[in-house]
Amino acid sequence: MSIRRTAAGLTVLAIILAACQASASGSPDESAGGSQAASGGCTVGVAWATFQEERYGLRDEPGITAALEAGGAEYISNDAANSNETQVSNVEALLAAGIDVLIMNSVDPEAILPAVQTAIDEGIPVIAYDRELENEAALFMTHDNVGVGRLIAEAVTAAQPTGNYAIIKGQEGQTNPEFLRAGMEEVIAPLIAAGDITIVGEVYTDDWLPDNAQDNMETILTDNDNDVQAVLSENDGMAGGVIAALTAQGLEGEVAVGGQDGDVAALNRVALGTQVVSVLKDATELGTAAGEAALELCENPDISAVTGAEASTSIGGLDTYSVLLDPLPITRDNLQAALDLEWLTVDELCQDVPSGTVDVCP
């Protein structure tokens, strides 16, 4: 496959920009783009949304880089730090650096569409990583986020089948909050219809940030005189913010809270009993699958031919293809499953957990 180049001056500037941003993200040295030439002539660029979320640097990126290294491909990346404007520039830098495949982890899937279209127009296959893009030419790769939402709601409603519920959603305008909410709805709709539960607060959270989630939860508690029995949070970071708000009101451990991502702090909260469930999405597995898909796209740009790709419909109604991996809910009953993945140590999982309260904590 040919390596695409623009004018020499722009290329040098773009590579410098990509290198600086990759270094800032905490990515490996080779992510700056210059250390290991790809024996297969394949260069894969990854535009990360943010490394503020624990999983991307610790799990997703190592999965991608390991797969690309095994396939003899070169890896270039940069980090947008949750800035739409930065990510547009980052994509331009990756394209100028001559990438053959773009893995796009969008800050704002709508704002980035023109930059994505530029890549597609240049013949560069695009993988929409973990966040869907409304472009029929982009291969969507993620865990089954409708299923994740369903699993969060199933665990929380099992623990707290009645009462007032709050729903803390992610960034408005992204597709994952809608997928997660759709899965939750499958579980809670009949309970709402039966009068068993009532939604007393539902709000989007800017940038999925824990501090913003804490503010949102504080408002919901104030509006309802602390009369909230359960919270469906769309990720673990926000669940931490929710629990901070509950703790300030003396409600820690009394309200059933669910989240997802398998963050170390969240799994510890599950062991402690302050969070009911963290739906674990093996991000390393997803990264590996994306890296392997990128290698396939270097050989054949047809997204429908990628291993595991199935015809699907985007949230906006476009016909495209996706690869969906299965999530795993972690509760106090199966904490060993998290340890088996070697994401955290027994000491991290069991920090401050009273001896004997869960089987895996001595």
What does this entry look like structurally?
Helix 2 runs parallel beside helix 10 (283-299), helix 5 packs parallel to helix 6 (176-193) and helix 7 (210-223) packs across helix 8 (236-248). This protein has helices spanning 8-25, 54-70, 84-96, 113-121, 145-159, 176-193, 210-223, 236-248, 264-272, 283-299, 335-340, 346-349, and strands at residues 43-48, 74-79, 101-104, 126-129, 138-143, 163-169, 197-204, 230-233, 256-260, 277-280, 310-313, 319-325, 328-330. It is built from 12 helices and 13 strands. The longest helix is centred in the N-terminal third of the chain and has 18 residues, at 8-25. A hairpin with a 5-residue loop joins strand 11 and strand 12 (319-325). It has 2 domains: 8-144 and 282-325, Response regulator (Rossmann fold, 3-Layer(aba) Sandwich), CATH 3.40.50; 145-281 and 327-349, Rossmann fold, CATH 3.40.50.2300. The protein is an alpha/beta fold and 362 residues long.
